[in-house]
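Sample pair:
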Amino acid sequence: MDKNLLENEIQHFNAIYQLVAEFVVTYSFHIIGAFIVVLIGWIVGNKLSQFVLRVCEKRQIDVTLSGFIASTVKLLIIAIFLVISLGKVGISIAPFVAALGAASLGIGLALQGPLSNYGAGITLIVTRPFVVGDTISIESVSGIVMMLKLGYTILE
């Protein structure tokens, strides 16, 4: 009786061991590959962002606009590589895109007020009615523009 119980336990352990070994052999290279793709995307995004920033500086584009363009390029490159890595693991991205669209709509409607500040920030960065170093006066407040960010402007 004890011998049958021991043999059943050994067979059960052997089955679990085979399952774990099969999982590791099958998916470990996919996970490592996806991690390598994300790492490459991070490196390419940083390098391309720095390149775009240098090109903008050579062409004497505004500092704020240059930083905005470089950050946008970096985020887009990293997002592309993340999508590639999801495909490498075997995850279909179509449901994620649909869920992201629905979530974005809900979040956008919920945050209409605060998001309008970011829209105004993008408008200020792109149209450049004033740049860093300009003296401006808004209502009763005046100062020198020290930093122009997406959500706010710092005056001194």
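The CA atoms of residues 30 and 90 lie 8 Å apart.
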